From TrEMBL:
Protein name according to UniProt: Farnesol dehydrogenase-like
Family indicated by similarity: Belongs to the short-chain dehydrogenases/reductases (SDR) family.
Leader sequence segment: none
Lineage of producing organism: Eukaryota, Metazoa, Ecdysozoa, Arthropoda, Hexapoda
InterPro entries, per the entry: SDR_fam
UniProt keywords, alphabetically: Oxidoreductase
Length: 246
């Protein structure tokens, strides 16, 4: 990980869950992190990491539904940190309902946050990475629903569609990077059930954690550090990460 020392990683959805765990792991390994999320109070709490590690945690309040907020964040990264070396597209949302009953507003929110926002982040990160011609890495934190749309069989309407779309974006990104001969690696993450607040916020009963095996956010953070620390000529294309019963 020495080659990533003090390089900048932009992490979306950094205020809790998987994004928080990834931010902590990257800072602990010496990277500087620019955490993006809407809950500024939660982001501020993570600045306590700055007393413990070589890396530093910085943050910006950012509404990923708002393109202008995303552009401001990447302009800030370019102006203050000399560009982006690592992008972690992590923010996401889910809504509990069937296709027959889901509200149009929920459909738009799921697609906007799970597909459109990370695509904009990729575009802006690529501009920076190509401009500086440094080694870089893009992580798209997807879902097992980006591989199998119907298992586990939950009422999640457009969520798998957004994740299959993001899987296609990840594959297209890899193709374009190969064609352009960029020094950029891309890894897609496809985790099973993870214990985060997205379940309760999405309208699901958190008691499912008492029934189903689940991953902890730190499990994904450890996997990300593993992929990031691989030799420069090694790209871990995809990681399918499933829990086993404890």
């Amino acid at each position: 990980m020495e080659r990533w020392l003090r390089k900048l990683a932009v992490v979306t959805g950094a205020s809790s869950g998987i994004g928080e765990a990834i931010s902590k792991a990257l800072v602990a390994n010496g990277l500087n992190v620019l955490g993006l999320a809407r809950r500024e109070d939660k982001l501020k709490e993570l600045t306590e990491l700055n007393n413990l590690s070589t890396g530093k945690f910085h943050f910006m309040k950012c509404d990923l539904y708002n393109e202008s907020d995303i552009l401001k964040a990447f302009n800030f990264a370019e102006s203050n940190f000399g560009g982006v070396h690592v992008l972690v597209n992590n923010a996401g949302t889910i809504r509990s309902n069937t296709l027959a009953a889901v509200k149009t507003s929920d459909i738009r929110e799921v697609v906007d946050l799970n597909l459109i926002a990370p695509s904009i982040c990729i575009r802006e990160a690529l501009k920076s990475m190509r401009n500086h011609k440094n080694e870089a890495h893009i992580f798209n934190i997807n879902s097992i629903y980006g591989i199998n749309a119907t298992y586990p069989p939950l009422p999640i309407n457009l969520y798998p569609g957004s994740k299959f779309g993001m899987r296609a974006v990840t594959d297209i990104l890899k193709m374009e990077i190969r064609q352009n001969k960029d020094n950029i690696r891309v890894t897609g993450f496809y985790p099973g059930l993870v214990k985060t607040e997205i379940i309760s916020l999405g309208g699901f009963n958190p008691d499912m954690y008492k029934i189903l095996p689940y991953l902890e956010p730190k499990d994904l953070a450890d996997c990300l550090v593993f992929a990031l620390s691989a030799p420069p000529h090694v790209q871990i294309d995809d990681l399918v990460i499933n829990p086993v019963r404890r």
